[in-house]
Amino acid sequence: MRYALATIFVIMATAAWSRPAQVVLIRSAGESSAGERQLRVATRFYGLNIKVVTLALLRGDDRTLRTAVGDRQTLAVAVTAEAISHTSEKELLRALSRGPGRSVPLIILGLTPSTSPALVRKWSDGTAMACRSATSKLNLRYVVGNVSGITEQLTSLEIPFPEQEAFYFALAPQGKAQTILSIENGDQLLPVFIEERIGGQSVFLDCAIPRQTRSALVANENGVVRAFAEIAPAIMFVKYCAGARGWHSIHQYANLTVDDAYLREPYGFLDYRGLLREMENHNFHTTVAFIPWNYDRSEAKVAALFRSHPERFSICVHGDNHDHKEFTDYASKPFDVQVYDLRQALVRMNRLRALTGIPYSKVMVFPHSIAPEKTLGALKENGYLATVNSQNVPMGSVRPPGALFSLRPVTLAFADFPSILRYSAAVPIPTYLVAINEFLGNPLFFYCHHECFENGIGAFDGVADTVNKLDPETRWRSLGDMVKHLYWVKLIEDSNYDVLAFATSIDLESESNRESVFHVIEKASNRPRVAAVTADGRPCSFELRDGYLRFSVTIPAHQVRSIAIEYEKPSPLPPVSVAKHSFRVYCLRMASDFRDNELYTNAVGRVIVRLHDVDGIKAAYLVAGLFTSIALLCLLTGVALWKTIKRFRTVAHGATPSEVYHEASLSVPPTTARASGPNRVPPSEAALLNPRPDKQMLGLTRRLSKRSSEAKEINQ
Question: What is the Cα–Cα distance from 439 to 402, expressed in whole angstroms?
Fold first, then answer.
């Protein structure tokens, strides 16, 4: 009770005096500029407030300027290109000062060729002479400089630029500015984002991005690359200014998942022992997305390998039967059937755990494509932690607009359930894709199938090396562990922390050197109803407000608390069986095994399985049809061979088929006693008088014919 009351007090106190850090934006009245919109996305991404001050409000009053900028919660100040000409350089620099050697960084947003060259020279301390324009028919690329504390994992990389025209700074020959971002145009490097120091004050200058053409290369890029490229200067500036006061991950996490395989060796091109050597040499972790239907097919030696190396191997859930799109639209497969399959998958995985002693992560990787939103809600109600797929927008749902959605791989926008984006390792992964995610603090989820290792078990080594080189402290973990660490923290003014959580089970870690209070917030619609929140098994008080679950936890320095959000149990449901009743599913699974373990071993087979569509028929069904045809051909061949052998043996005994038919139809009186006299039949022959198979009848017929011939000779 005392613990609960203390927690309630902490929540109330937090609501009373905790305020997020802020960025002050000075702009002219009227519509917002592109630079302002980019800054708003960046501040929201890092959990900062943005305080807008218009020139009309200032009215040349330096006291108002100092009040707006001098707030201790202000981490940075931004001025638009339209407003900078009406802002006093002297008064603004004075307002930014925080004492000897300390000041708040300043950025001037959206400079264009129409900006006065005199202003550009003044605010760059003479380093930049003017802002100019360059156009190219080729796809332009950002080139990232090397500026300590700013460029980090992006240092020296090239990133696709979102347009084919760029505004850039013409620098003085002896300029001292640090170039953070340039545009590569042929053999030229054109600076577009620079930093200069004016009397000890850090000033950043940003060129606007023209909005005339769209680069085809960037349009085809992954969402996070495109979103980052469009706001790169703003997000790099805000991250630099925010530091620990902005949302950040405590550690960098990564994982490789191999779909479809089960615990047999080898599975197609997947050699578990060989993969273990690569993981140990190149430091990564592999999760097998395990089809629950295979729960009773594991090899003991492979199971032992997984048990003895949990730091390298793990298992998660991959559908239930994996019969193509088993979690699809409800017209094709009703919702209640999908719910049964979700429940059956867990029952089968529990049986796998009992048979092998291997734990599994309650993370669903859907076969072929992500399910509709309602099915994601069913995952939550049945105790799953998250779903990880090549798309994080459910089937039939609309992708939320804006760059903010693309900057994170995880979303709670659908059924308040974590839906996570992953990247295919079967295609080349650009270094800048890895670097951007690490720069943003995003966990990295990679996946492939066994055929990725066709040319060698070291196929993933290069990606793992890139991840580890960009961030040597990367932690490679199972999907379950990654989901439990899927949260971001930020330092607040009382030296405690806010936590933005995504999963119902998290391992909350303190990086502080003293005991701290963590105020956790997670999106929750209370469907199903939240029953309890516990920390290491101890109850926590919580509240639901404005669509969010809120609670607080006290954690000693450098300790971890296991947080669990529990929901009310649904009404009792019918029991679920692990039995495999479907003959269709059995054939599909056997066909898949035949495809992966037999067809892939030869060139002709690989051509067959790589056909995605032939006249609208999916490759899986082609393989199933091929498997069935081969089985039928073998059956017919066996029957024909059996008949041939039968005929051969008959002819070898000296009778034609017609003779056999005739003699087998003769009436032969049975006998059960030994005869005496000249007509006595030997015991071995007496046994043949009973009705028996054809070869016995043939023997009897030959003996009767022989005795008849002998009798005729005696009579003669």
Answer: 20
